[in-house]
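Data card: per-record layout.
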Amino acid sequence: MFNLTRYMIALILTLSILVSYTITINTQSLFAQNKPGIVISLANSTFSPLTNTDANQLKVNVKYTIQDALLKNQKINAVMYVFAPNGTLLKISSFPTGFIAVGNGGVEVLKSTFNDKLLKSVLANVTFTDLSKTKSLSNILTVKLPLKETPTVGSLLGNKPNFKK
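The structure for this 165-residue chain is written out next.
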């Protein structure tokens, strides 16, 4: 009976350690930060009036670096959520058929056109996703842009030239 009790105590202790170890490993993996497969950053951006129509265009050039070798030369997508200054979602833009994530990275351009001439600034959140746009593959890039004013002749010339001597 004494041997059976020692055996039970050893068994319970071993099972407790095993369960604690499993919970610790699962908790660490659950709370570990997943590194994105692609890191994106801003190359440049504009929000300016179009010259051929009565609309404004948001253009965001996104630089990307591939961190996960499995994503190299794979077809992926990018999604741009555009918000008004009050937080209202205005538009969601993406590539209709995706694009190839070339080599170690590159630059992709996302554009959206807005007919609302009262819109003086926008906020865009860009992320790279899988081709079906269901899984995020990158960090989120946030860009806040004021509307760039169309230059006038007066603004280009500065003060009016004085032709009198």
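Known properties of this structure: The first strand starts at residue 38 and ends at 49. Residues 38-148 form a domain with the Immunoglobulin-like fold (CATH 2.60.40.10).

See the next section for split statistics.
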